């Protein structure tokens, strides 16, 4: 099946997944708003034990079709600790025979030795935070690696992992059209099977956001839209775009595809978000509180939300409309068409084979804002 197949997009809603968050980073990048800690590597072993306990205290379920070990920087973990977390998931839930086990990595951690150790630990797909192949952009993003290091890391990973993905960030004010073009050229030349290309977002509360408040140039919306278009044009020479920011030659990221299909996933670790039985949960985001909760035998929940009725239908559309395959129309889609016939007239949205698809991808967020505020049918 193609990465943007509607059948695959819908099937993914039935997959069972697990997410494990590894918060440790060498340094916190100025744009990053994830649950991360730097300079606390002495906590790694204790954190690892806490995650295993959290897995053990969860309810029976499974087997798992997809696992995502995200961060933070999971590649800072000793590979045997990643391996024992995967084993803990296997003994608790079981792993499907074709399970996909993705792990995020920073290029400075990846070489022939670490790649083969993570592969032996059970990781089957590596997703590397390259961000750019331009050293000027990398420096300004506060990254620890150079373009050469990233290329070597990708080559080392490809020699071991059947599937390698890279993340790119476009639209930093120091990036030029030429620099983005060269990053896309190199991306196409690597022979990897997946790319995620994100526009730089200024997240509130980050050092980047404070710098922008103090006069540092903010990313320009029009420039970012142009860069998205160029990425789509160029990357589609080799890949199929199956979501606003995601491209694959053959296989999409299973875990992400499952989340966009409103699928269910268990979540472990700092600040991790889960979804089971119509309830969305979020874990504590402070590492001391997270570990204290788990060590005293409690689930480390910061909160949970029951998502039902019309809210659930709006959520189904919000997630599904990001995919190239769109989403089964259903009551929410019918309501969009009823309240906003202009979307179809203007060629922004189409309805085809019982699905709603956003045709003008750059307007996806605008459509989703309307979806989230539309009242239920009377
Ligand atoms: C949370 S990071 C974890 C991966 C790894 N630590 C790294 O940074 O390479 C996952 C991806 O999110 C993207 N990302 C994080 N913050 C972002 C931001 N403010 N704007 C755009 N993309 C962002 C980056 O592409 C990054 O590779
Ligand atoms: S972007 Fe990646 S490496 Fe940088 S702080 Fe965030 S999680 Fe850590």
The parts where pLDDT drops under 50 for at least 5 residues are none
Oligomer: single chain
Question: In the CATH hierarchy, what is the architecture of the largest domain at level 2?
Answer: Alpha-Beta Barrel
Determine the mean pLDDT: 97
Query: How much beta, percentage-wise?
Result: 15-25%
**CATH homologous group name of the largest domain:** Aldolase class I
Compute the number of strand runs.
Answer: 17
CATH top-level class of the largest domain: Alpha Beta
Explain how this protein is built.
With 378 residues, this protein is α/β, with parallel strands linked by helices. The chain folds into two domains: 6-260, TIM Barrel (Alpha-Beta Barrel); 309-373, no CATH class. The protein is 39% helix and 23% strand. It contains 15 helices and 17 strands. The strands form four sheets. Strands 9-10-8-7-6-5-4-1-11 form a nine-stranded mixed β-sheet, with helices on both faces. α7 runs parallel beside α9 (221-235). It is globular and about 60 Å long. It starts with 5 loop residues before the first helix and ends in a 5-residue tail after the last helix. The model has no long low-confidence stretch (mean pLDDT 97). The chain binds S-adenosylmethionine and iron/sulfur cluster. Residues 25, 28-29, 32, 34, 36, 71-73, 106, 129 line the site of iron/sulfur cluster (SF4).
């Amino acid at each position: 099946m193609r990465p943007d197949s509607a059948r695959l997009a819908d099937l993914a809603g039935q997959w069972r997944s697990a997410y494990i968050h590894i918060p440790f980073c060498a340094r916190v990048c100025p744009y990053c708003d994830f649950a991360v800690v730097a300079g606390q590597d002495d906590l790694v072993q204790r954190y690892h034990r806490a995650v295993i306990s959290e897995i053990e205290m969860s309810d029976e379920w499974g087997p798992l079709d997809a696992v995502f070990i995200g961060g933070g920087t999971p590649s800072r973990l000793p590979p045997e600790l990643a391996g024992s977390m995967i084993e803990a998931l296997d003994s608790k839930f079981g792993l499907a025979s074709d399970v996909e086990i993705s792990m995020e990595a920073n290029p400075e951690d990846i070489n022939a030795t670490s790649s083969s150790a993570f592969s032996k630990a059970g990781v089957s797909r590596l997703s590397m935070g390259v961000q750019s192949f331009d050293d000027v952009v990398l420096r300004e993003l506060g990254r620890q690696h150079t373009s050469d290091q990233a290329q070597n890391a990708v080559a080392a990973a490809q020699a071991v992992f059947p599937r390698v993905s890279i993340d790119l960030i476009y639209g930093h004010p120091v990036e030029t059209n030429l620099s983005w073009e060269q990053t896309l050229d190199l991306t196409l030349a690597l022979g990897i099977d997946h790319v995620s290309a994100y526009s730089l977002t200024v997240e509130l509360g980050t050092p980047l956001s404070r710098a922008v408040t103090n006069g540092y140039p903010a990313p320009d919306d029009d420039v970012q839209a142009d860069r998205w278009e160029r990425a789509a044009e160029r990357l589609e020479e080799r890949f199929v775009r199956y979501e606003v920011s995601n491209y694959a030659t053959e296989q999409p990221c299973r875990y992400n595809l499952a989340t966009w299909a409103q699928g269910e996933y268990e979540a472990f670790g700092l600040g991790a978000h889960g979804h089971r039985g119509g309830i969305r949960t979020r874990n504590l985001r402070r590492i001391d509180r997270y570990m204290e909760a788990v060590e005293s035998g409690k689930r480390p929940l910061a909160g949970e939300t029951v998502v039902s009725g019309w809210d659930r239908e709006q959520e189904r559309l919000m997630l599904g409309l990001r995919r190239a395959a769109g989403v089964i129309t259903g009551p929410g889609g019918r309501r969009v068409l009823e309240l906003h016939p202009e979307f179809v007239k203007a060629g922004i949205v189409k309805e085809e084979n019982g699905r709603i698809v956003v045709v003008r991808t750059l307007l996806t967020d605008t459509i989703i804002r309307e979806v989230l505020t539309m009242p239920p049918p009377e």
